[in-house]
């Protein structure tokens, strides 16, 4: 059973989200919060596996709440819900510890799938905004020598995988690019996440830019195909 906490300042939105999630017998909504303060308090009380977090809320927004949740209830994974594709808060939310985000207008079945993806320990970026997030990340994060030193623990192939992840490629695309099996890519991902002390794919992308492994403007454009097909933005291990 997957437990979920819904956080949104709109009463109708919370009711709608609860109705969608309740249609799946394997999901239980353990609580609802109308702002960031209440979200943190309820997360401490119920320890949900997934928190559906609105970005813009009064009193304490989703970014501040996510940052506090990451410290107070590290097992809870946050899926940000945003209204606009160009939401200026998206990168801040990911940097604060969110495991992914989706647009509020997504189809009900996709939201349910996203909850299961996040609960399984994977990350997820909405297909329509994945490239935008990567480009903003590249422009917003200056190289950090301390972070760059952490990459020395990686093998050459693990660095290759990290770079391709940061360019926005899916596991299948990375496998095609490196001429290996997709299972091999997943193994490399698991090892590099462990070596760098990272939780998921989203954090790996952030580290790639913080370290200077990739520089602004080097993320693969959405129209680029390389080897394999463009990423669909689904959750990846």
From TrEMBL:
Residues 220-237 have a biased composition (Low complexity). The keyword Lipid biosynthesis does not apply. Residues 147-212 form the HTH luxR-type domain. Residues 3-119 form the Response regulatory domain. Keywords: DNA-binding, Kinase, Phosphoprotein, Plasmid, Transcription, Transcription regulation, Transferase. CDD domains: LuxR_C_like, REC_NarL-like. SUPFAM superfamilies: C-terminal effector domain of the bipartite response regulators, CheY-like. It comes from the Bacteria. The modification 4-aspartylphosphate is found at residue 54. Pfam families: GerE, Response_reg. One of its GO terms (molecular function) is kinase activity. This is Response regulator transcription factor. It comes from Paractinoplanes hotanensis. The lineage of its organism: Bacteria, Bacillati, Actinomycetota, Actinomycetes, Micromonosporales.
């Amino acid at each position: 059973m997957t437990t979920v906490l819904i956080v949104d300042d709109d009463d109708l939105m919370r009711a709608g989200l609860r109705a969608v999630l309740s249609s799946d017998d394997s999901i239980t909504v353990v609580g609802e919060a109308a702002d960031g303060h209440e979200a943190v308090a309820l997360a401490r009380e119920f320890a949900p596996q997934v928190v559906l977090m609105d970005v813009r809320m009064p009193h304490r927004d989703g970014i501040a709440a996510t940052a506090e949740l990451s410290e107070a209830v590290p097992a809870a994974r946050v899926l940000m819900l945003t209204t606009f594709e160009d939401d200026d808060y998206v990168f801040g939310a990911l940097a604060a510890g969110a495991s992914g985000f989706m647009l509020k207008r997504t189809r009900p079945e996709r939201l349910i799938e996203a909850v299961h993806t996040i609960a399984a320990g994977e990350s997820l970026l909405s297909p329509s905004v994945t490239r935008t997030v990567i480009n903003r990340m590249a422009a917003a994060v200056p190289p950090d020598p301390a972070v760059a030193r952490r990459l020395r623990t990686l093998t050459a192939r693990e660095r290759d995988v990290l770079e391709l992840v940061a360019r926005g490629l899916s596991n299948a695309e990375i496998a095609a690019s490196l001429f290996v099996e997709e299972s091999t890519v997943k193994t490399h991902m698991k090892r590099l996440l462990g070596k760098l002390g990272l939780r998921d794919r989203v954090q790996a992308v952030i580290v790639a830019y913080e370290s200077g492994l990739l520089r602004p403007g080097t993320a693969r454009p959405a129209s680029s195909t390389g080897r394999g097909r463009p990423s669909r933005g689904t959750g990846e291990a």
